[in-house]
Amino acid sequence: MKTALHIILAALCLGFALTASAATLTPAEVAAALQQTYDRTTTLNADFKQVSRMPMQSRERRATGTMVLEKPGHIRWDYLTPDLQVLVSNGATVSMYFAKNQQMMVMPADRYLASDVTYAFFVGKGKIREDFDIAAPETAPLLDRGTYCIKLTPKKLHPQLQHLNLWVDSDTWLVTRIQLVDQLNTTTDLFFSHITVNRPVPAATFSFTPPAGTEIIHQ
């Protein structure tokens, strides 16, 4: 989960208002609109479905859950199936709880942030056009009507992320799918639904107390 969560925060379903149609937008224009939207977005909630595939293997790993984002630096991901896992950032520390292992890892948020340019973008520390090369996907994906796709590649070599593709709905201007490709060519697809933005989030959302007996590992 740790690797996926580092990457997932690259493009979490931000809506933006545009007057041009999707067909008239270049990848660079889409990226600029995403940055503008993120700059004025304060909170985001969504459900997600995750599907991961490894090269040369037919088996897929599937998971579902919910996510919440509040600037600056507040994040919560709850994996509900197949196993309970929770990632919470309160802006000062990041905690990752694994129910199956009865463990919770805790580290400074600054260290977590420094390890991933994608995370930096979504807590307001990065700029998409400065951190990524922007292009159309190398292989044209199958797109639903009213959807387009852009490719983002980190400008600096990233230990986990090779590139990612974003699918955007041209009616709602929300990212509905993210496809992540790591350095081992493992592909992770995230499909988002029930997306809401700029709604109040209770402060308690970004705190988590693990069950008694959980091993706490500070990094």
Please explain how this structure is put together.
This protein is an alpha+beta fold and 219 residues long. The chain has one domain: Lipoprotein localisation LolA/LolB/LppX (outer membrane lipoprotein receptor (LolB), chain A, Clam). The model is unreliable at 10-22 (pLDDT under 50). Strand 1 (43-53) and strand 2 form a beta hairpin. The longest helix has 14 residues, at 27-40. It is 17% helix and 42% strand. The protein has helices at residues 2-8, 27-40, 109-114, 117-122, 128-131, and strands spanning 43-53, 60-70, 74-81, 85-90, 93-98, 103-108, 132-135, 147-154, 161-169, 175-182, 187-197, 215-218.
Radius of gyration: 17 Å
Question: Percent helix among the residues?
Answer: 10-25%
CATH architecture term: Clam
Strand content: 35-45%
Major β-sheet strand ordering: 7-8-9-10-11-1-2-3-4-5-6-12
Task: Report the CATH topology name.
Answer: outer membrane lipoprotein receptor (LolB), chain A
